[in-house]
Amino acid sequence: MKQRRARRKHYNWEIEIAKGNTNKFYHSTEWDEAREKRLKIDKYKCQFFLGNWNDGKHFPDKIKIVDANTVHHIIPIKERPDLALDIDNMISLSFEAHEIIEDRHRWTWRKKRKPLTEERW
Question: For burial by CB atoms within 10 Å, which of 15, 23, 71, 119 has the most?
Answer without folding.
Answer: 71
